[in-house]
Specification:
A hairpin with a 2-residue loop joins strand 1 and strand 2. By secondary structure, the protein is of the alpha/beta class. The chain has a six-stranded mixed beta sheet with strand order 6-7-8-3-9-10, sandwiched between helices. A four-stranded antiparallel beta sheet has the order 2-1-4-5.
Length: 284
């Protein structure tokens, strides 16, 4: 790929997977500069990019490459210094903080490496939280939360507290919370960073099913090539610029990979349990 992708190049890959003609995400010449005293840090340098409804995109790059800054802008958590950002055809780069908060509540679901669950609150109540902020009536809040937990396979864990759940189950609760307001876009920042190998594949299976069965647009940030392989498209950042935008070849299908992995019980028998929950651990 060229040193900095043109608008047409950056759009062509996504367009090949497009469900309709209007991009869910359109970035036009996005720059982000941070002033740190007398020093300016150029986090993004003229990013132009289209991501269409129904895509599953992995954003990759080393620390400081600009990928997290991009996610903050796409998630309406920050504004570009220059350039325009259209979400579902609406220019959100000019909106007020109040309007951006409304967009986040209505259109975007967030999943983070840290699960960010309230420790003294049940799984059901954790999932209900976004609906409270959105002003959803109590009965509808509970219905939505139970439905979201069912979508991630936790119907039997609604009354459990985070301390009673494994790391993988806590991340499932976090995904359910991201889904509860029926967003059109799911953003996940290193969603498998705190999980062992098998549980990471289980989480990717959830993302793949949400994408293929429900048409949800999914964008994940990851530094792990094996995790990026579950996406349909990979975009690599370096020094604030897009260096690569390609369709995933020989894409991994989580539902096919899972049966080939040792079960947690097998891991325990083999003596590879890691109490810290690292990539070699057995926790899920």
């Amino acid at each position: 790929m060229s040193e900095n992708l043109s608008v047409s190049q950056a759009s062509a890959v996504g367009a090949s997977l497009a469900v309709d003609d209007t991009p869910t995400i359109r970035l036009e010449g996005i720059y982000k500069t941070y002033d740190l005293g007398e020093v300016q840090v150029h986090a993004l340098r003229g990013i132009s990019l289209d991501i269409y409804r129904g895509e599953f995109v992995a954003i990759m790059g080393a620390s400081g490459s600009g990928k997290s800054t991009l996610m903050n802008i796409v998630g309406c958590l920050d504004k570009p210094t220059r350039g325009r950002y259209f979400l579902d055809g609406k220019d959100v780069s000019v909106l007020s903080r109040h309007d951006l908060a409304k967009i986040r509540s209505q259109k975007i679901g967030f999943v983070f490496q840290q699960f960010n669950l309230l420790s003294r609150t049940s799984a059901l109540e954790n999932v209900e939280l976004p609906t409270i902020y959105a002003g959803v009536p109590p009965a509808e809040r509970e219905r939505r939360a139970r439905e979201a937990l069912a979508r991630v396979g936790l119907s039997e864990r609604t009354g459990h507290f985070p301390s009673q759940l494994s790391g993988g189950q806590q991340q499932r609760v976090a995904i359910a919370r991201a889904l509860v307001n029926n967003p059109s876009l799911l953003l996940a920042d290193e969603p498998t960073g705190n999980l062992d190998s098998r549980t990471s594949v289980e989480i990717m299976d959830i993302f793949q099913r949400l994408n293929s069965e429900h048409g949800l647009t999914v964008v994940i940030v990851t530094h792990e090539p094996d995790i990026a392989q579950y996406a349909k498209r990979a975009i690599e950042f370096r020094d604030g610029r897009m260096k690569k935008d390609v369709l995933i070849q020989n894409r991994s299908i989580a539902a096919e990979v899972l049966p080939t992995l040792p079960s947690p019980d097998e891991d325990l028998v083999q003596g590879v349990e890691n109490p810290n929950g690292s990539r070699n651990g057995a926790a899920h």
